[in-house]
Design brief:
153 residues, 64% helix
Length: 153
């Protein structure tokens, strides 16, 4: 699905004019976001999804996408690259998952040990460790689903 199609599908549920009014922008701009961009269109009307994709591409940072996933009550996990799995071993990946799980437990323990409660900063560290663990495990499962750990006979 193209970015303009995703926007059109989402916006059509509520209506372009309603969305434009609630966002404080013109309806023609929203209409333009929901159409394919022509090769000759240089008016700077890339839709918001294309702009975010460009920021990620230019910076190499997935922070904006991860933020959007959190805003949508979700979590971003990048697909594993095949190059990273050239000589995969279950043991190596299992150790990595266990280490990350240990880091989560350590963050929780450290938070509770000092004063018997977990404050905001400690909670942030726990969230960071937990998100890292989820990412590693999801990448492992995706790699398994893609047959990246299968023996080829």
């Amino acid at each position: 699905m193209k970015s303009y199609q995703a926007l059109k599908q989402a916006i059509n549920n509520k209506g372009i004019k309603t969305i434009a009014a609630e966002m404080g922008i013109s309806a023609p701009l929203v209409y333009k976001w929901c159409e394919p961009k022509s090769e000759t269109d240089v008016s700077g009307t890339d839709n918001p999804l294309d702009r975010i994709a460009q920021i990620v591409e230019l910076t190499g940072e997935i922070g904006p996408i991860a933020w959007l996933c959190r805003k949508a009550n979700g979590f971003f996990v990048a697909n594993p690259s095949k190059s990273r799995m050239t000589q995969p071993t279950y043991i190596k990946e299992t150790r990595r998952m266990l280490k990350e799980f240990s880091d989560v437990i350590e963050a929780i323990s450290a938070g509770i040990e000092d004063d018997g409660s977990i404050d905001f900063n400690e909670c942030n560290r726990i969230r960071e460790e937990w998100d890292g663990l989820k990412t590693i495990i999801e990448s492992f499962v995706i790699a398994c689903e893609r047959g990246m750990f299968a023996t080829h006979k």
